Amino acid sequence: MAEEDVVPKTFRALVESADRKFARVRDLPSYGRAQGQHYFQKVFKAYMRLWKYQQEHRAELVKAGLNRWEIGEIAGRIGQLYFGQYMRTSEARFLVEAYIFYEAILKRRYFEGCGVKDLRVRFKELRFYARFLLVSLILNRTEMVKVVVEKLRALIDDCKANFRETNFKEWKLVEQEILRFINIDTTFTIPSSRPFRYCAMLNCHPNSVPYVARFHAKKVLKFRDAILMSYHRNEVKFAELTLDVYRMLQCLEWEPSGSFYQKHPAEPKENGVAVDYSGASGLIDMNLAADMTDPALPPNPRKAILYRPSLTHLIAVMATICEELPPESIMLVYLSASGTPGQINTSHVETSGGSRRTRKSMLTSHSSLEQNCSATESHINGVKGPSDYYNDFLWLGPKGNGGSSNLYPGDIIPFTRRPLFLIIDSDSSHAFKAERGEKAALLLSPLRPTFKGPSSADITQNGSQFTLFLTAPLLAFCQMVGFSLSDSDMEVLNSAESILSTAFSKWEVILCKSPSLDLVWAQVLSDPFLRRLIVRFIFCRAVLSAIWPPEGSDQYLPLCIPQLPNSLSPKSDVVQSCVSQLADHLKVSNYFHFEDS
After folding, report:
1. Is residue 209 part of a domain?
2. Do 83 and 195 belong to one domain?
3. Are 183 and 236 spatial neighbours (Cβ–Cβ below 8 Å)?
4. Which domain of life does the UniProt lineage start with (predicted)?
5. Are residues 154 and 253 in the same domain?
6. DSSP 166
7. Are residues 98 and 50 part of one domain?
8. Is 109 inside a domain boundary?
9. Which residues of 307-332 are buried (b: 16+ CB within 10 A; e: fewer)?
10. How many domains does the chain contain in total?
11. Which among 187, 215, 249 is the end of a domain?
12. Full 3-state SS string of 488-545
């Protein structure tokens, strides 16, 4: 073998070996604690060896015909590998590493100049943009998302012009999906809004910290694992990430300290001049990760993200995670789905002011109030017979698939043998007030959302109202009453956030001091993620209770099981005053009725 052939042949052998190992881990399940860790280490090692080899022998490889897009493909595989590991572990460092590799591919223009006639390479470039968009979305790099969207759009148009015999309809749908997503997601519509992730600077309330630190229940559970699932027809999504799951995913992660204030990173420069990455350099600056991660933060809870799973797959995932759940730990399960195939329930609040009697008349005369009342009456009133566990359900499946796609309340009961924090967001959520099995923490959505206008209530356009209350309560409040927010309202927005922060701090103190707090809630109160969900639920319930008259309002109110202390009921002064103050501040008090008014 000629000496000049050794390097390219060695390189090709390393590529083939790495690709074989990559194929093994690509299809491994993204849930379970032991899944794929051994294979991940092997394939990562193979790609690091390959990456280092092409760096050391770049000149020989280029001389032998190595294309720049081939270097980009290797970097893209490493990015895929990191992102897959993030999805399995929820460790932020893997997500950051994926972003760094993808960003380097973009800035060094590895795929550019590959020749318009090579359709295979064009498809690789399209897939790269789609993967980079998903990573950038989850990491909240809003400016980068906008840049990549424009590049994706330009590439699709270019491909359609140069490859007329090829159908790019699916890629146009990808473009439409991401545009629809960013037009709705508040991270893009209100760039200065607070992050969904838990930020110690913004979500840790100084007045309640000493009480939380001193709080000791008979049993304390650690929040280690979560399952997030959304299944609605035509819901807002990008790739396999729906808007509701995207919000909940971020709500259950730590925000690196200071990153909230670094949303618009500058272009990398050397000596004041923008760096040109179009040369032959293959170096990826791994030190960039130090600016985007925070080693002082605890690990994120693991999250299994399920996109439109079959019923059997959902139950299998729940069983696996329950089996592997460490001792003294709790699993969160978030399920968002319709109770009827294709059904989307809406309701709205009367847009004018007026007396309580007038509003009650307008609300109860709305036609949606009378639909399915008889079907929901039994579980609204808490009267459940043995068969009721199988009368109402969440619908997970294609149209006309029958009972094989129905998730019944009884299907959840076996999993209550392990500590369970269950969030059901559905128009049949109240059916899950199961009284059998071990006691679990349940947060159940209203059966119908409440909005100023019916157009906002479509879950396929805006995502779920209940989920938004749990992940971004102020934005949910403003959306509900039709208060339009923008960056020009930052002073108003910050004052409103301050009102909520003060109230949430007081409520946390009350929870810690309450002698009637059920053990189910007490054993998770020390966890910042679950405690934040509990106080946001209290706020959501109080807001909706202040809108609807007591008679016939059960469909429009969320439920928690077991009950939280009466000192934090919707009618308590400390809770009602928060809603009243916020409504006054935003000048929307005419939508609410408070007992002292």
Report:
1. yes
2. no
3. no
4. Eukaryota
5. no
6. S
7. yes
8. yes
9. ebbbbeebbebbebbbebbeeeebbb
10. 2
11. 187
12. HHHHHHHHHHHHHHHHHHHHHHHHHHCCCCCHHHHCCCCCHHHHHHHHHHHHHHHHHH
Are 511 and 565 in contact by the 8 Å Cβ rule? The answer is yes
Q: Does residue 222 sit in helix, strand or coil? A: strand
Residue 261 has pLDDT above 50, yes or no: no
| Nearest residue to 587 (alpha-carbon basis) of 487, 488, 484 | 484
CA-nearest of 50, 120, 43 to 282 is 50
Residues 330, 454 within the same domain: yes
**pLDDT tens column, 229-241:** 999 888 999 999 9
Range of the domain at 54: 5-187
Supply the pTM of this predicted model.
0.87
Amino acid identity of 413?
I
* Amino acid identity for residue 158 in this structure: D
Residues 308 and 401 in one domain: yes
* Highest mean pLDDT (candidates 38-47, 446-455, 574-583): 574-583
Query: Which of 138, 154, 187 delimits the end of a domain?
Result: 187
| Averaged pLDDT of the chain | 82
Output the six-digit token pair for 53.
């080899």
d(CA 54, CA 587): 63
Cα dist from 502 to 144, 542, 550, 573, whole Å: 34, 16, 27, 14
- Considering the domain architecture, whether residues 428 and 524 belong to the same structural domain is answered as yes
Q: 188: pLDDT confidence band, cut at 50, 70 and 90?
A: low
Q: pLDDT of 112-167, one tens digit each?
A: 866 667 899 999 999 999 999 999 999 999 999 999 999 999 999 999 998 988 99
d(CA 574, CA 568): 7
Task: List % helix, strand, coil for the chain (3-state, nearest 5).
Answer: 55, 10, 35
Report the distance separating Cα 531 and Cα 564, nearest Å: 12
> Is residue 28 one of the residues assigned to a domain?
yes
Q: Is residue 272 part of a domain?
A: no
Q: Does residue 465 contact residue 450 with C-beta atoms inside 8 Å?
A: yes
pLDDT by residue (tens digit) across 70-99?
999 999 999 999 999 999 999 999 999 999
pLDDT number for residue 266? 36
Phi then psi dihedrals of residue 391, to 5 deg:
-95, -35
